[in-house]
Amino acid sequence: MLKFDRELFVQALNEGALGKRGELERVVDEISGKGFSNIFLIGSGGTVAMMYPFEYIFKSYSALPVRAEIAAELLVTDNRQLTSKSVCIFASVTGTTKETVAAAQFCREKGATTIGLVGIPGTPLAEAVDYAITFGREKHAFDVFYLQLQILTTRFLQQNGEFPQYEQFAAELAALPQGMVAAMEEFDARAEAFAIKHRETDYHMLVGAGNLWGNTYSYAMCILEEMQWIKSKSIHAAEFFHGTLELVEKDTSVILFKGEDATRPLVERVERFAENITKELFIIDTKDYALPGISEEFRKLVDLNVNWALTSRISAYLERERNHPLEIRRYYRKMEY
Amino acid sequence: MLKFDRELFVQALNEGALGKRGELERVVDEISGKGFSNIFLIGSGGTVAMMYPFEYIFKSYSALPVRAEIAAELLVTDNRQLTSKSVCIFASVTGTTKETVAAAQFCREKGATTIGLVGIPGTPLAEAVDYAITFGREKHAFDVFYLQLQILTTRFLQQNGEFPQYEQFAAELAALPQGMVAAMEEFDARAEAFAIKHRETDYHMLVGAGNLWGNTYSYAMCILEEMQWIKSKSIHAAEFFHGTLELVEKDTSVILFKGEDATRPLVERVERFAENITKELFIIDTKDYALPGISEEFRKLVDLNVNWALTSRISAYLERERNHPLEIRRYYRKMEY
């Protein structure tokens, strides 16, 4: 596969997430032992989008009040729910994202317990939090974060008596990196064909729901807009019918992120509509991939990791076909504002 | 002003919201007297967007757990926070929005206490809830809802000991309809000029934050996309810098919704960036309007009503300039999906 090192990918997930299982569990157990009143999942851009799936998973499994918050907004709002009894979880690949670091300091000053998932040790975010989980690399950092968050989230659920399947789930996660690679290999030719066909397409509509809504939002904003400078609209599948549908014409590119949680029927409803209107409907369905070693009941939890991995294949080919490296920015971190 | 009847507007707000103050207070007081554990603000499209400001206001003022939810997603998700101790608030202009009606029935079956804000009495939503607040008209229904929600929200806060200024605030609201009309009259020429200039513009970026984020999302989706078939991207001011900024070029239309709550600096940051890049920056700032009778400390609560009213003037002129009636739909309620 273009620009993909299978060994490196599996190694990153094994070392960065699965190998940190004991450390992640100790953090959760210590915090759960002391007790807390709510959990905040805090990030900026891609990292807050990465928190949305876990906010949704908590909602579906737990009576714990959990809320994702944009770091910069949290900083200016006197959020009355944020107290010394709160647990705040942050993530930053570089460990230097300004608002995220400031938000971690802010929450710590309020007396909240802070956990930071950080690519690079010794960086400002790693220094600002009570518990820093670092793994020493930027490559595949989001895949690592997603897997770390799976462990953190389900461990919190288990400690709260809401996920007795934890041991089995955590053990099965060991099979996920290989399953993700196999899924990417299977999807790769479709990703390449999509990028070739849509080399010149200047607008995409992305639709998702439930625990894939964060990925939908993120792929539109952080990949298509930020890294490819292509206009894109992310819209929740349930909201699609309250406005955005009116824009769909016979050649509109509509990308559906189909997952396996309870919101799947909402995405299928968009599919039934879109397949009658546009010939440019592209569906990424995690159900198409086997994931050996993952029990049926857990697929609805890890579909987000698989979806994330699959979409990275599109990015690799868009970069080549559009001759537009994913790293160039016009403005971000290039000017003051 | 084009397609605007000043008397009718003030009458709608007076009868539909201010005249319902006693009824709204009795509902809140009865529910607060019995006790409850959390509040859900539930809608679809424009009506869930209308709930976002109040979710934000609760967050800033209250320790009560309050969450806005998309009706269709709530219906398929087994939300563990939704119990017989929950209060669920719904709104629908026609009283017939399918998912909203189904969600009201669903919440009531769970034993939750349900409140419905409904344009038309005797409709399915009005029948499905424990407390229906109806006002008998569709015209200006959103302006009425916003004002009803101001009363409901601040009354809940007062009953929870978090808004001792309630009596003064509720009394001052009587001056708001006239203040909104004066603001619209002042803004009207700018709205017309914008519509003339952007008659052919095929993409707008809308940016807002805090209690104007819902309006930002809604104007993009429900007006520009649904009613004018113009591509648009709504982006939270804090998230703008994590992707969408890269799309801004010298002729990109960027519309800023500037309000008066704690998130104003986030929008000002976008302003500082955008004014250096595009010549098509259009700012709608509620601070520019006097609002006689409204105390300084309450402006940050009612900026969302004012912003909503101002943007309606743009819609009126876009409709005329683009010769595209706000009522035509290609697909919504015209086909099955």
From TrEMBL, chains A, B:
EC number assigned by the record: 3.5.-.-
Alphabetized UniProt keyword annotations: Carbohydrate metabolism, Hydrolase
GO molecular function: carbohydrate derivative binding; glutamine-fructose-6-phosphate transaminase (isomerizing) activity; hydrolase activity
Taxonomic superkingdom: Bacteria
UniProt-listed InterPro entries: FrlB_SIS, Fructosamine_deglycase_FrlB, SIS_dom, SIS_dom_sf
RNA-binding keyword on record: no
Domain SIS, first and last residues per copy: 27-162
Biological processes, Gene Ontology terms: fructose 6-phosphate metabolic process; protein N-linked glycosylation; UDP-N-acetylglucosamine metabolic process
Keyword match Protease: no
Enzyme class, spelled out: hydrolase
PROSITE patterns, alphabetized: SIS
Classification via SUPFAM superfamilies: SIS domain
PANTHER family associated with the record: FRUCTOSELYSINE 6-PHOSPHATE DEGLYCASE (PTHR10937:SF14), GLUCOSAMINE--FRUCTOSE-6-PHOSPHATE AMINOTRANSFERASE, ISOMERIZING (PTHR10937)
Quaternary structure and partners: Homooctamer.
Function: Catalyzes the conversion of a range of fructosamine 6-phosphates to glucose 6-phosphate and a free amino acid.
Protein name: Fructosamine deglycase
Source taxonomy: Bacteria, Bacillati, Bacillota, Bacilli, Bacillales
